Amino acid sequence: MKKSHYFTSLLRSYLDEIDDLVTDSEGKSVLQRRLKDKRQEMDAILAMIDYSPEMVAVVFYDAFGFPSADVMHALEFLRNKDTFAAPAARDEDDSEQDEDGDDDEADDLGEAGSDWLSEQGFDNRDE
What we know:
With 127 residues, the protein is mainly alpha-helical. It folds into two domains: 1-63, no CATH class; 64-127, no CATH class. It has helices at residues 5-22, 31-40, 42-46, 53-57, 69-73, 81-84, 104-119. It is globular, with a radius of gyration of 17 Å. The protein starts with a helix and ends in an 8-residue tail after the last helix.
């Protein structure tokens, strides 16, 4: 699977941020408490999205659950932004589309999501 360069470059920082949240200086597990604290500070943290997105992304760690990979695969229609985006939100520049007319970024997101599902123990439907 191919991940976008954007997510690949942020992955290490994101994982480091999660590691920082897991335990306190005494080695006690404090992840849930720290996530709760961060979620309560969402307004302040959201201002960091432009210069430190990994600090914002951790707020969503373990915030969503899917009973099966099929739930995620059912959303495949979202891969094409024309399916769900308002006309004003659509990018007029078609340069991001590959030779099949597909959006490369959507492919990257789909692959990243599939990687995440595999890491969570779900079977990859493409294998």
